[in-house]
Design goal:
The chain contains 11 helices and 12 strands. It has 2 domains: about 5-85; about 105-350, 4-Layer Sandwich (Deoxyribonuclease I, Chain A), CATH 3.60.10. The protein has a 6-stranded mixed beta sheet with strand order 3-4-2-1-12-11, covered by helices on one side. A 6-stranded mixed beta sheet has the order 5-6-7-8-10-9, covered by helices on one side. The protein starts with a helix and ends with a helix. The mean pLDDT is about 90. With about 375 residues, it is of the alpha+beta class.
Length: about 375
């Protein structure tokens, strides 16, 4: 390949990566726009590669080269603003557990999207045995999976809520901890459930779980992200209103750095234990170069971090996600989630459908004010 052809190749790689990473800035919920939220890590890497390679053909006397590199560096800086906070170079959002804290204050949670058509499960149950969770949420579970899971976990998890379905949106929750006020909810779509329940920790305190699996913005599922975003916002508002500490987990069909997940955190006053620790990419399990964090465990500031990560591959397109937490509400002011701003409440209102907002019997005061204007 000639010198000029190399230059053109590097320019094309850089420009494509830069433009695609900017597509999600368009304020529209069409799937072909929102889908570019997902490969942000890959697009950032392509931009960096284009910058590094272009220096091999850089012409100090060519003004166009300075303009091109300046554009790419600006784009790379923007790309890094979305993902830098997940790297170990950034500060953590959820602080480490206190030294010597009693096991009665510990909570281990585990979630796995099993892939409904998957017929492999050996590594999944090995992981569950090794991690020894107190609470498990399974998604994409049909009746076949429900029967297998009951057989494998036996009587170790006496508390359960089961909603197996054949449409890849079945959900199962199993717990060693006492449970109350459990419900199966269809918050946006009559075929897509979420499970809400309260669980008692070993120290006698209770917390609220919201397990969700909204539909992704893909043409074969939903041509827009409206339903997903509405379910995320409804969950966030319930978290904001909760009088109990909250854990929101599941396959969000959204990445950790997207505006939607960020807003869910802000409105729900939730924290992300991945910040400052890593991406914990849970999807796609079969394609190492195309991975991003789709499965989330968001927590209120009453909890602290002891361990977290992803599990082994077991035939699904997702890796399981797990977290070991400690309940330390007396220290919550050290990592308190900030109150949502007026602008964030406005974005939450704009992100929800009118039907979604109307389903609440009581809205937060800030949203009530926006509705009356």
């Amino acid at each position: 390949m000639t010198f000029m052809n190399w230059r053109v190749t590097f320019q094309i790689i850089g420009i494509i990566a830069a433009l695609l990473s900017l597509v999600p800035l368009i304020a529209a919920d069409y799937w072909w726009i929102r889908v570019f939220d997902f490969p942000h890590l890959q697009l950032t890497a392509f931009t960096l590669i284009a910058i590094l390679l272009y220096f091999f053909t850089f012409k100090p006397r060519w003004v166009n080269d300075y303009v091109y590199i300046a554009i790419l560096l600006g784009c790379f800086a923007f790309q890094m603003t979305k993902i830098f906070k997940f790297t170990p170079l950034s500060s953590v959002e959820v602080l480490e557990s206190s030294e010597g804290i009693s096991a009665d204050h510990e909570l281990k949670v585990f979630t796995a999207n099993v892939l409904q058509s998957n017929d492999k499960s050996e590594n999944l149950f090995k992981d569950i045995k090794e991690k020894d969770p107190d609470l498990i949420v399974f998604t994409e579970t049909d009746a076949k999976w429900a029967e297998l899971i009951r057989k494998e976990i036996g009587t170790a998890f006496p508390y359960k809520v089961e909603q197996p379905q054949d449409n890849t949106y079945g959900m199962l929750v199993y717990s060693k901890l006492p449970m109350r006020n459990s419900s199966i909810n269809f918050m946006v779509d009559p075929e897509i459930p979420s499970i809400h329940a309260q669980f008692e920790l070993r120290d006698g305190n209770w917390f609220q779980l919201y397990a969700i699996h909204p539909t992704p913005p893909m043409p074969q599922h939903n041509p827009k992200s409206t339903d997903r975003d509405t379910e995320l916002m409804k969950t966030a508002i319930m978290s904001y209103n909760s009088e109990l500490p909250v854990i929101v987990l599941g396959d969000f069909n959204d990445v950790a750095w997207s505006d939607g997940t960020e807003l869910t955190k802000k409105i729900g006053k939730l924290l992300d234990l991945r910040l400052g620790r890593g991406f914990f990419n849970s999807y796609h399990a079969q394609y190492p170069l195309m991975r991003w964090p789709l499965d989330h465990i968001l927590i209120s500031s009453d909890f602290r971090y002891k361990d977290a990560g992803t599990g082994s591959g077991f035939g699904s397109d997702h890796f399981p996600a797990y977290a070991k937490l400690t309940f330390e509400p007396e220290l919550k002011d050290k990592q308190e989630a900030s109150e949502p701003t007026d602008q964030e409440w406005k974005r939450a209102k704009d992100q929800m459908s009118e039907e979604g907002l109307g389903s609440f019997t009581k809205l937060p005061e800030a949203l009530e004010g926006l509705m009356s204007n």
